[in-house]
Structure formats: C-alpha cells, structure tokens
Amino acid sequence: MATTEKPREETARKAEMSNLDIVRYYYDRAVDRLELPDDLRTVFWSSYREVTVQIPVKLSDGKTHTFSGYRIQHNGARGPYKGGIRYHPEVDIDEVRALASLMTWKTAVANLPFGGAKGGVNAPAGDLARSEIQAITRSFMNKIEKILGPTRDIPAPDVNTDAQVMAWMMDEYGKLHGHTPAICTGKPIALEGSYGREQATGRGCVYMFREAAPQVGLTPAEATFVVQGYGNVGSWAARIMQQLGARMVGVSDATGAIRSDAGIDADDLAAHIGDGGKLTEFPGAEVISPDDLLAIECDVLIPAALGGMIHEGNADRINCRMVIEGANSPTTPRADQVLHDKGVHVIPDVMANAGGVVASYFEWVQNMQHFRWSEREVNDKLGGVMRKAYRDVSARAKEETLSLRDGAYTLGVERVVEASRARGYV
Length: 426
Ligand code: NAD
Hints:
Blueprint: H1 8-16, H2 19-34, H3 38-45, E1 49-58, E2 64-75, E3 81-87, H4 93-109, E4 116-121, H5 130-144, E5 153-157, H6 163-177, H7 200-212, E6 224-228, H8 232-243, E7 247-253, E8 256-259, H9 266-274, E9 286-288, H10 290-293, E10 300-303, E11 322-324, H11 333-341, E12 345-347, H12 349-352, H13 355-369, H14 375-400, H15 404-423
Parallel strand pairs: 3-4, 3-5, 6-7, 6-10, 10-11, 11-12
Antiparallel strand pairs: 1-2, 2-4, 7-8, 8-9
C-alpha cells in the first residue's frame, strides 16, 4: 500500500492546476472537437450521483474520529459504474469527481461495458492500524451498499487500499446480500480474485510500449527506461519491461531516487523493498535527487507515482523519447505542451494505465460466471484489449492530427454520448 507522504512536487501541481481542472481541460477540448452543444457539455461533465457519508470510528487513541466518505457515480450509460476507492487524508469531493470522470473516459477508450465511478475516504491510512482500516472499510461499505451491486456499481482498490480492503468490503456486503464476489474487484486470489490482476496495470503499460515502440523507432530489447514511483504500477511495469530486455537506468519512490547506467535489476529491487530495504540503499546504484531523475537521458519515462509530478517547472528537463503515464494525471496540460513541442511521444493515463480496470473487468466476468481463468488467459486477453485501445486511439489521432491524449478523450466522450443517445437519454 502507498505511503501518505505529501511530496513537494504535488504541492507544485496543486498550485498550477487541480486534478479536476486537468480532466475538465481535456474533456472540454473533446467536446469542442465533437461540436456537442452546451447542454450536453453539462450533462456529460456532471456526475449522475454523488454520495457523501459520515464514518465515525473509534481509534486506538480512545477517541471517535469522524471521517468523510465519498462515492461518486459519474456516468453509467455504457454499463455498471466502475472505479477504485482511495484512502488518503487529502481526499476531497473534487478529487473524487475528477477521478470518477476519468474512469468514464478510460472504460470507454478500452471499450469495456462499464461506466465510471470513484470513491474515497479522507483517512490517514498510512498512520492507522489494520484493525482501524478494517473498521473504516466496514462502516463505509455499510453506508454506501445501497447504491452498489454487481450490476450497479463495482468498487476496486486504489491508493492505500488493497486486496485485503476489498475482502472486507465483499464480506460486509455479503452479510446483507449473501455471498457476492462480483461486488468488487482486486480481491485476494483466495476470495475469487483474478490471477494477473495485481500485475495488470504495469503489464498494460508494457503492452502500450510494445505497440508504440516501432512508431518511434525503438527496439524493446535495447530500450532504456526510468520509473518514477516503485509501487504496484511502477514495479510491475519495470519487471515486465526487463523481461523484454529493456534496462532500467533510474528509479524513485517516496524515499528518494537512484540511477545506474549499467542498469538496476527490477526484480532484485522489488525484492529488496519487499524485504523492508530502502530504495536509496539498493547496492550498486548512485543516489540522486528526485528532480534529477526526470533529467536522465533514456528512451522511456514511466511516471507511476502521484498526479501532477510532471509540471511546467520540470517538463523542460525531461530527456526521453516516450512517456507512458502509469499514474493518473501525472502531467499538467502546460507540461504536456512542453513535451509535445520537444517531440516526446506521450501515451496518456486514460489509455496507458487502463490495464487495471481491464483486469478488473475480467475478474468481474469470472465472478459472474463463478469460473476461474488461468493467468496466461488473463494476460493474453489483457494484451488484446490494450492493443486494440492503442490502435483505436492512434487511428483517431492520426485521422484528425491530434495528440494521443486528445484522440483518446475524443473517442471516449464520443462512445459515451453514443451509448446515451441509444438509450434515449439525450
Ligand atoms: P502504490 O501506492 O503501490 O505506489 C506508489 C509509489 O509512488 C510508491 O512507491 C511511493 O513510494 C511512490 N511515491 C510517492 N510519492 C512519490 C514521490 N514524490 N516521488 C516518487 N515516488 C513517489 O500505488 P499504485 O497502485 O502503484 O498507483 C500509482 C499511480 O497509478 C496512482 O496515480 C494511481 O492512481 C495510478 N493507477 C493505479 C492503478 C492500479 O491498478 N494500482 C491503476 C490505474 C492507475
């Protein structure tokens, strides 16, 4: 699970543009391009349903703390609402709105039969005991279960929530409705979770890389890459890139950054951190400042930490040919323009990190069928969906001379509008 440190870079991002403003900016460009009228601009921007609940929980200090929990269902025209639940002290309704809307466009770009949602609780998960997180989770589920369901709204893990949190959610829901594994995804394998789900977001980033590499003249086996944020997404992306023969020449997490031109072994680093070691104490690499990490000359940069880490203040130092956005909204619009002007091929979050929700969809399908697929089957199907998404977006971008980000948003918004029209909503 993620730590709750508040990095300097994120503060800079908040000053430049909020998460909600970033998503709105790209949404508006897509709406303009599709020439949708203003009444529809409002319909497809605003959320279908926003629920805020009170979560009072007695913590180990003997006091009852009152947290706020949110579940926002942004758009369900294409299917049940789908999106993660985040525990972080800075969670607020605007951030959840932004992430819910991003999920609507992401599921549409991947062509999944889902809508978009997001949830969050403003609890400092990094400072709480597991028993306290369990109490918050059960209380939250109790308050929001009325709007959830396997054909209504299906939560998943996000920052500071994991398979264990999903197991508690499923268990709590089951007390009221009977055993319902399809109520959430990202569950433990022992509780009808899916093989391959844990690695899926990182693996999806690598499928995108393989599609894009020939377009920018890169050979995967000879590529060098840098990863910002060595958590679930970053470490799996790195390990799978390495399987292709690519070399990791720089990496960071919340504790610091390291580099080595000879290469940092992604599996050994994951094991070192898994054993409680600090990234900056990994043998054979040079400790550098997090700011210098982005300036390392490499073929591929994978931001996989938090939102807004690539901003106007550092985008110019970036020295790579391709950026694959593992994190959500890691690049501010001004930084995006700088990268575009430098000729960097940016694969945006709305498609690059869709692997997680695609594997969640597979988990849901398996749960609905009470059947289990092999990891190989999951990975192969994931590859098929990710490749198709890349090709669909690429074709659209080429057709209208757009960036991949603008192409993806245009395609995503268009698909949601089409489904809404077919239902007779607009
Ligand atoms: P995680 O908590 O497992 O990992 C986050 C990593 O970022 C940790 O290693 C942490 O130390 C590091 N980090 C935090 N602050 C940093 C800083 N200032 N500089 C460098 N590293 C820093 O989280 P995750 O699940 O890997 O998610 C990472 C990002 O990917 C988030 O933006 C999340 O919304 C997005 N995402 C995750 C998934 C998924 O399936 N896990 C799917 C889609 C998008």
